[in-house]
Write a structure and sequence with these properties.
Blueprint lengths: L13 H13 L23 E5 L4 E10 L5 H7 L4 E5 L11 E6 L20 E6 L2 E14 L3 H8 L13 E8 L1 H6 L13 E14 L3
Parallel strand pairs: 2-3, 4-7
Antiparallel strand pairs: 1-2, 1-5, 5-6, 6-8, 7-8
Length: 217
């Protein structure tokens, strides 16, 4: 089928032209795959805002803003600069809350209020709660890993559908809560920074979904 450009002629009402353009502009964009995309196809993320609570470290009702991208890229860093968390989705990010795959949440540790300052102390077995669209998801922390932003293999492992295992097909809903290791890098004499002023290392707390229930009113 041959597609022809849309031309607004004098016979087409101006209001109809404007309405058509509005619909086209509102349509969601589909990201083209990149050479860095690995592993099996991922579930389509439900693009919705969420709220994060981690009682064990005093995090309560932290807003999580979804965006299409990758962890701690320029758009994600700008979101975190507002003192909230960011959740990248799409080919270079993760999935939505409660979805099978890797739900990625990132927030600052020492700037913008440092909402995840205490994340390093979060222990295995601790609960992480995500509330979205009237549903409350409980994840339980199972693993801690460190990501190096100077290693593509390490970055791929962080954003993999199964955290730490690029190319593995996911079978359960998981979460990666990530923040910077700036104090630790500085103490070690590592002052490398990327274009967004992120340090080399990120701390990732990984959990699995254990319970789903309606949000309590």
């Amino acid at each position: 089928m041959t597609l022809h450009p849309f031309h607004a002629s004098r016979t087409v009402p101006k209001a109809l032209v404007c309405a058509t353009l509005a619909v086209l502009l509102a349509a969601p964009a589909v990201a083209a795959p990149t050479d860095q995309d690995q592993g099996p196809p991922r579930a389509v993320a439900r693009v919705q805002e969420a709220v994060l609570s981690i009682p064990a470290i005093g995090v309560s009702d932290l807003a999580v803003i979804p965006y299409e991208g990758s962890p701690d890229d320029a758009p994600g860093t700008l979101i975190q600069d507002r003192g909230v968390a960011a959740s990248p989705y799409g080919p270079r990010g993760g999935v939505g809350p409660g979805d099978v795959g890797n739900y990625i949440v990132t927030a600052h540790r020492i700037t913008a209020g440092g909402p995840l300052w205490s994340l390093p102390s979060l222990e295995k077995g601790a609960s992480v709660f995500v509330t979205a669209d009237g549903v409350r998801y409980e994840y339980v922390i199972t693993t801690t890993r460190t990501t190096s932003f100077r290693s593509q293999a390490s970055i791929d492992a962080q954003r993999a559908a199964v955290p730490g295992s690029p190319g593995t097909a996911p079978t359960q809903a998981m979460i990666t809560v990530s923040t910077c290791l700036t104090p630790e890098d500085n103490a070690a004499g590592n002052f490398w920074r990327d274009a967004q002023n992120n340090p080399e290392h990120r701390l990732d707390k990984i959990g699995v979904l254990t319970a789903t229930e309606p949000q309590k009113q």
